[in-house]
């Protein structure tokens, strides 16, 4: 597992699974058959499955190794969780994600920091593991970095995701609540990207004149590069998310910075290219 180099930082994707997930109209109100027609030829088959009509989604984390720290950005779905709105994710027993982390040469004990872009079910699930009937941190030596605004919103909601994947981290004394511009050091820092959730953040990486940003759920699918105004039905503030997304796309197209996406199909990493008054995503080589 070679990984992507950002200067002296190594970035590797740790996959839980990848496949057809939801149709465009399941996610975007605007994604009618007519609206999607001009895009099918470039979305299929990589990002849109022609057989099912569903978008191809990976569920993955980014393993980041700097000269100082071993970091995970987001922790996927996890096992044994109660997820009523996605029954196929409830009570999972598939250990593929944990096995893939170990296959990358990293044991859970070796993780120094866990950064959660936001606290939705498919981004914080492996934060905890069920041991003897109790949820405990999967990464016993890690600090878990949560944006204060994101944590406060999750705490107020107090749903099963919070109770199973977030609160146990706080109770174990491993949570680090930070502002949305928090910097770990000069190589890793947060960027406020609100809209999808109250305290959603992207994670910036920089080393030796090279840089990248992991965008979390600011952008879910490459079609949003062509239509930055399309916000998923599950965005907390769709208008703000669209504004944040367009600014993010424009600034990264101008800078040429590498973008690490959560749910774009493999290889998931690439660059934003300006195309007319919108954008497209140019993938790095697999």
Q: What can you tell me about this protein's structure?
A:
The chain is α/β, with parallel strands linked by helices and 286 residues long. It has a single domain (4-283), classed as 4-Layer Sandwich (Metallo-beta-lactamase, Chain A), CATH 3.60.15.10. The protein is built from nine helices and 15 strands. It has helices at 24-27, 33-36, 40-43, 96-103, 121-124, 148-157, 160-171, 223-226, 238-255, and strands at residues 4-6, 9-20, 56-65, 70-73, 113-115, 128-131, 134-137, 143-147, 175-178, 188-192, 201-207, 210-214, 258-260, 269-275, 278-283. It has a seven-stranded mixed β-sheet. The chain has a six-stranded mixed β-sheet with strand order 10-11-12-13-14-15. Strands 6-7 form a two-stranded antiparallel sheet. A hairpin with a 2-residue loop joins strand 6 and strand 7 (134-137). The mean pLDDT is 97.
The major sheet is characterized as: 7 strands, mixed
SSE sequence, one letter per element? EEHHHEEHEHEEEHHEEEEHHEEE
Radius of gyration: 18 Å
Kindly estimate the percentage of residues that lie in beta strands according to DSSP. Answer: 25-35%
Number of domains: 1
Q: Which CATH class?
A: Alpha Beta
Which CATH-level-2 architecture?
Answer: 4-Layer Sandwich
Taken from the alpha-carbon principal axes, the silhouette is: globular
Q: Could you name the ranges where pLDDT drops below 50 across 5 or more consecutive residues?
A: none
Distance between the termini: 12 Å
Helical residue percent? 10-25%
Widest beta sheet: strand line-up: 1-2-3-4-5-8-9
Number of DSSP E strands: 15
CATH homolog superfamily? Ribonuclease Z/Hydroxyacylglutathione hydrolase-like
Structural class by sheet pairing and helices: alpha/beta
Give the overall average pLDDT. 97
């Amino acid at each position: 597992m070679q990984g992507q180099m950002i200067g002296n930082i190594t970035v590797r994707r740790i996959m839980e699974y990848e496949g057809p997930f939801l149709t465009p109209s399941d996610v975007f109100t605007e994604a009618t058959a007519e609206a999607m027609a001009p895009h099918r030829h470039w979305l299929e088959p990589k990002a849109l499955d022609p057989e099912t009509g569903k978008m191809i989604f990976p569920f993955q984390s980014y393993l980041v190794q700097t000269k100082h720290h071993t970091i995970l950005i987001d922790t996927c779905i996890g096992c044994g969780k109660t997820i009523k709105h996605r029954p196929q994710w409830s009570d999972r027993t598939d250990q593929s994600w944990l096995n893939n982390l170990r296959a990358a040469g990293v044991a859970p004990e070796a993780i120094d920091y866990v950064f959660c872009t936001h606290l939705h079910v498919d981004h914080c699930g492996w934060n905890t593991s069920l041991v003897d009937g109790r949820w405990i941190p999967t990464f016993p030596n890690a600090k878990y970095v949560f944006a204060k605004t994101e944590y406060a919103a999750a705490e107020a909601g107090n749903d099963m995701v919070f109770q199973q994947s977030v609160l146990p981290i706080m109770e174990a004394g491993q949570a680090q609540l930070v502002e949305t511009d928090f910097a770990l050091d000069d190589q890793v820092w947060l960027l406020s990207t609100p809209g999808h959730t109250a305290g959603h953040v992207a994670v910036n990486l920089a080393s030796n004149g090279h840089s990248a940003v992991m965008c979390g759920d600011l952008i879910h699918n490459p079609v949003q590069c062509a239509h930055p105004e399309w916000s998923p039905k599950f965005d907390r503030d769709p208008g703000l998310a669209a504004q944040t997304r367009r600014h993010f796309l424009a600034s990264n197209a101008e800078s040429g910075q590498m973008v690490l996406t959560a749910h774009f199909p493999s290889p998931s990493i690439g660059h934003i290219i300006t195309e007319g008054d919108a954008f497209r995503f140019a993938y790095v080589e697999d």
